[in-house]
Amino acid sequence: MAFEALGEILDETLALPVKDKVYVVPPPSAATGLRVQAIMQAAAVAADGGKIDDAVLADAAERDMYRDVLGTAHAEMVADDVAWPTLKHCAVTAMVWIVQNKDSAERYWNSGGDPSRLAPNRQQRRSSSAAANKTRSRGSSSGTKPHQGNRAGGKKRAPRQ
Question: Which helix (H) or strand (E) holds 70?
Answer without folding.
Answer: helix 65-70
